[in-house]
Write a structure and sequence with these properties.
mainly alpha, Citrate Synthase, domain 1, Cytochrome p450-Terp, domain 2
Amino acid sequence: MSDSILVRRGFMKAGLEDIVAGESRICYIDGDRGILAYQGYNIHELATNSTFEETCHLLWFGRLPNRAELDDTSRKLASNRSIPAQVLDAIKRLPAKALPMEVLRSSVSMLSMYDPEAEDMSPEANLRKAVRLTAQTGTLVTAFHRIRNAKEPVAPRPDLSLAANFAYMLNGTEPNDTMTKALDIALILHADHEWNASTFAGRVTAATLSDIYSAVTSAIGALKGPLHGGANEAVMRMLMKIGEVSKVDAFVRDIFAQKQKIPGFGHRVYHTEDPRATHLRRMSKEACERAGQGKWFEMSARIEALVKSEKKLNPNVDFYSASTYHVIGMPIDLFTPFFAVSRMSGWT
């Protein structure tokens, strides 16, 4: 019996909507009440009071760390950011026009060839690999970006947080406090999201008893697809096309008239505001104003008001992240790779 017949007869739903494939101990979502929690901690509490390093510890160990444990996790993440010279040399030989997600997918897979613990499937070894992968992903992303622009990669600094170090390796200068805080909160908000497509892909690979590098490579491949990652890229391109706050209303109403969708709105799981968007809205306002580019937030806020009024849709995690990333100097095609920098902690 074909899949189309099964769907029509009600045996399954297209896209596995509402189908329970498994349960997550790490992450809890209540889409009706707009709740997202990691290991029992509400995302609002974590975004307000935690750091990405602390959130990594929570995801990996199931509890928030004490001071000594946090110092240990932070030290391990900071000391494992360098990538093998062979991987860096390979990245330098890649076409400058390659997509950053292509490069990330291939370079993460390549890391396994230089990890002596790659085939050690013990929990202890997998934890060490989780730390290394989470630490190295940002280095891979920023190294390729600088190489494709004929610049030397910036070596990671162990004295900086993962968020600050990403910005430092990207731009070559130490970020200000607003930029660092914005990136740190974004990393927390994107760290895990239950059984999303990339996590599902990674878990299918892991279920075959394949290694952790193969699993996260599968996850990155799924994230590369425009139906999973990339919505915030579409949002920023839309904002740049509009150009000015005064042009928002006409643009949005034209989109409505053509019965097209505004990127960054609505969510398959959340039937109320995406709790991550609550923080990203505030971050966008602060970052845009600090950068002297307030128009990007003002345009976004006006689009939100129109879409809410006309379509009764709320912004999702992608909508306000676009303007936030843009004003801190992140190129549009690095938005999704940065997502992977964060989600690596949840995948592993």
